[in-house]
Design goal:
alpha/beta, Glutaredoxin, 2 domains, seven-stranded parallel β-sheet, 19 helices
C-alpha cells in the first residue's frame, strides 16, 4: 500500500495497518540545500528540488507543497517582511487605515502574485510523486487572512463592529474557496485551511464569526472531490468541538493540546486528528531517540484509526534532518524502535536561567512568550498587541517589552521556570495575564494602568 492510499483510507475512517506520517516541512526544506527561506519561496526550481529531496529522505505518506500563510495576503495588498530562516510576515495591514478598502477587492487570479509559481510546483510534484504521496495544498484560513489585512484592530472590531468582521470573513472565505479550486485543479489531494488565530478567540466568538464561514469552505472543498483539514496552532482545546462542527475531514493540532483528550472529541464526530510532535523540545533541540520516543508514544496512545502522526505545526528551519528520518523509521517499524529505546532516558537541557527581579522593576514589564513572532502568526499578533500598547502609552507610562522565543533553548527552560505551558502567552511583571488569547488594547491598557498606580 502506498502512503497516499494510507492517507486516503485514514481520511475515510478505516482501520489501518500502520499510522500514516506527514512531516510539515515548510521552509525547513531549504536547509537541506542551504537555501534561505526567501529564495526558496520565490524560486520554482529551488522549491521543487527541496520538495523532492524531502520526499526521498523523510518517506512521507503525505506532504505539503508550500507552507506560507502570506500568499493571499500579499496579493491583497499586505506589505511583507522577508526572512532568512522563516516564512515572510505581514508588516503593513492595508485595512488598518482604510477599513472599507476590502469592498474593492477582486478574487485572486491564477496569474496573481506567487500563485503561478506554486501551481507549477504542485503540478510537477503531482507528476513525480503524486502516485505514492498524498499532496497537501495549504491555504490561509479566513480569520488569519482578515487579521493580516486589518491588523490587531480586528480583535476590537469583534466587540465594536461585529457585522463588519462578518463581511470581512465572508470576503476571506471567498478567497479561500478560489485558492482551493486552483490547488485542487493542480492535483492536491487535501486542502488544509491553516488558521493559527482560531486558538486565540473564545468559543462564543468562534460560533458567532467562524462557524458558518468554515462550514461553507469545507462543504465547497467536498464538492470538488478533495479532502480537507482544519489546521490550528496554539491551545485550541476550547474550540475543538466547534471545529468538528464545521465538518472538515481532519483536525490538525499542535503540542499545546492534550491529544488524547482531543481525540475523544474528534472520535465523537468521526473526524481524523493529526499532530502533535513537539516542534522545539523534540524536533529542534532533541535527539533522534527523543523524537522516536515521542513518535512511538503518540502511536500507542492514538491507535491506527482516525490518526495521522505529524509535527504540531510548520517546523523550524534548523530542525536536524536526522530527527525526521528517525521519526520515519519509527512509523515504518515501531516494534524494532521500541526495542532499541528500552534503555533510553531523556536528557535535560543543562542551562541556567535567571528571572528578572519582578518586585523591583523600574517600569512595567511585558514578557511575550512565543514560538517565534517572525514565523508564527498567532505569536506575531500577541507581540504586536504588546508593541502597540507600549507605543500608545509612551509619555504617560513607560513600558518594557521583551519577547522570549522558544526557538532558543534557554527560553524552553525559562518557560518551565515561569510555569507557562501554552503559547503564545503574555506576562505582566511576572504574572501570566493572557494565554492563547490575544488581548484587545483597552483591556491590556487597563491592566497596565492598574499596576502603574
Amino acid at each position: 500500500m502506498t502512503g497516499k492510499e494510507l492517507i486516503i483510507k485514514c481520511l475515510n475512517h478505516e482501520e489501518l495497518e500502520r499510522v500514516p506520517w506527514i512531516p510539515y516541512t515548510g521552509v525547513h526544506i531549504g536547509s537541506l540545500k542551504n537555501y534561505d527561506a526567501t529564495s526558496l519561496l520565490k524560486s520554482k526550481e529551488k522549491l521543487l528540488e527541496c520538495l523532492l529531496l524531502t520526499n526521498e529522505l523523510y518517506s512521507p505518506d503525505g506532504q505539503p507543497v508550500i507552507f506560507d500563510l502570506q500568499i493571499e495576503a500579499e496579493i491583497l495588498g499586505c506589505e511583507l517582511l522577508w526572512a532568512e530562516k522563516a516564512p515572510p510576515t505581514v508588516k503593513a495591514h492595508p485595512l488598518a487605515n482604510d477599513k472599507d478598502a476590502y469592498k474593492n477587492y477582486s478574487l485572486p487570479k491564477k496569474t496573481d502574485g506567487r500563485i503561478p509559481l506554486i501551481l507549477d510546483v504542485m503540478k510537477e510534484m503531482k507528476n513525480k510523486v503524486g502516485d505514492k504521496t498524498a499532496l497537501y495544498g495549504l491555504i490561509t484560513g479566513p480569520f488569519t487572512l482578515v487579521s493580516h489585512l486589518r491588523g490587531t484592530d480586528i480583535f476590537m472590531d469583534m466587540y465594536d463592529e461585529p457585522e463588519y468582521v462578518k463581511a470581512l470573513l465572508n470576503c476571506a472565505t471567498d478567497v479561500a474557496c478560489i485558492m482551493s479550486n486552483y490547488y485542487i485543479e493542480a492535483g492536491m489531494d487535501v486542502i488544509g485551511a491553516v488558521d493559527p488565530l482560531v486558538s486565540q478567540i473564545s468559543p462564543d466568538s468562534f460560533e458567532e464569526f467562524l462557524l458558518e464561514p468554515y462550514k461553507r469552505l469545507f462543504a465547497h472543498i467536498r464538492t470538488k472531490k478533495a479532502y480537507s483539514s482544519f489546521f490550528v496552532c496554539g491551545d485550541a482545546t476550547k474550540n475543538i468541538e466547534l471545529m468538528c462542527k464545521t465538518d472538515p475531514d481532519c483536525l490538525s493540532i499542535d503540542e499545546n493540546i492534550d491529544m488524547v483528550g482531543a481525540k475523544k472529541v474528534t472520535d465523537k464526530y468521526n473526524k481524523v486528528i493529526s499532530g502533535n510532535i513537539n516542534l522545539t523540545v523534540a524536533l529542534l533541540f532533541g535527539t533522534q531517540q527523543d523524537c522516536q520516543q515521542i513518535a512511538v508514544d503518540r502511536m500507542d496512545q492514538m491507535g491506527k484509526k482516525n490518526f495521522i502522526l505529524a509535527p504540531g505545526c510548520d517546523m523550524p528551519y534548523d530542525t536536524p534532518k536526522e530527527n525526521l528520518i528517525a521519526i520515519a523509521q519509527s512509523v515504518e517499524n515501531p516494534t524494532a524502535i521500541k526495542k532499541a529505546l528500552e534503555n533510553y532516558t531523556k536528557a535535560d537541557l543543562n542551562i541556567e536561567v535567571v528571572l528578572p527581579d519582578y518586585a523591583n522593576l523600574k517600569n512595567p514589564l511585558i514578557e511575550v512568550l512565543t514560538i517565534d513572532s517572525e514565523s508564527c502568526a498567532a505569536c506575531g499578533y500577541m507581540k504586536a498587541a504588546a508593541d502597540n500598547v507600549q507605543k500608545h502609552l509612551k509619555g504617560s507610562i513607560n513600558i518594557d517589552v521583551i519577547e522570549h522565543k522558544i526557538m532558543l533553548p534557554e527560553n524552553v527552560v525559562r518557560l518551565g521556570k515561569l510555569g507557562v505551558s501554552n503559547l503564545p502567552a503574555m506576562m505582566l511583571n511576572g504574572k501570566l495575564i493572557y494565554s492563547s488569547i490575544i488581548p484587545n488594547q483597552k483591556e491590556l491598557e487597563s491592566k497596565i494602568r492598574e499596576i502603574a498606580k
